Amino acid sequence: MAELVTIVLASSNEGKLAELRSLLAELPVQLVTLKDLLGEHPTLPEDGNTFEANAVQKARAAYQLTGLPALADDSGLEVTGLQGRPGVRSARFSHERATDAENNAALLRELEAVDDEGRVARFRCVLALVVPGVEQPLTVEGCVSGSIARDSRGGGGFGYDPLFVVDGFEGRAMAELGDAEKNQVSHRGQAARAMKPLIAQLLSNQLDEAERIAG
Length: 215
Ligand code: IMP
Prior knowledge:
Radius of gyration: 17 Å
Structural class: alpha/beta
Bound molecules: inosinic acid
């Protein structure tokens, strides 16, 4: 059997961890957290203006702390009627240490008087992988379109999933999809599927080839 390669995930978000473990399950990879390795999750720098800048910052920091290949996910919700907010501030929309419930309540409040057009939204995810010996982080992106409901539904997923009605799913919210269905359609699922061949290349030590695929 192939040896497992350890990759550290630069996130303390249990929802992201569970989804990425499932999405990368076919690879001979063991995804561990900084908490697993260091006993606590350090606060990582995340002050960029784009998902890509933040994902790269977090992956670089996790690599520097551990010396291991490091994967980071920066993701969030962009709402048309809020001119793309909450965007990179999705986790901190209501306040700095907000819970998902507080963020969802804040989103519903801000959209109270907003019509269907303004409720059009998308989730975006950038995954960044920093690998020892490769200077440029590898980045990939995924995106899923939908709209913001007027009330919460479903118990699956995390974050804004109870409010995000996925295009093409008969009015169902992301939180009403099963785990496999969410992975199939989600921004993170798309990004992970783009990242898989890059990780596979890295595992076979063909680093140059992986950089070439990433462009
Ligand atoms: P980050 O840790 O700065 O990348 O923040 C990501 C935030 O975006 C999460 O805390 C959620 O609020 C939101 N988010 C990202 N991905 C998802 C998802 O798959 N479902 C629901 N909310 C998400």
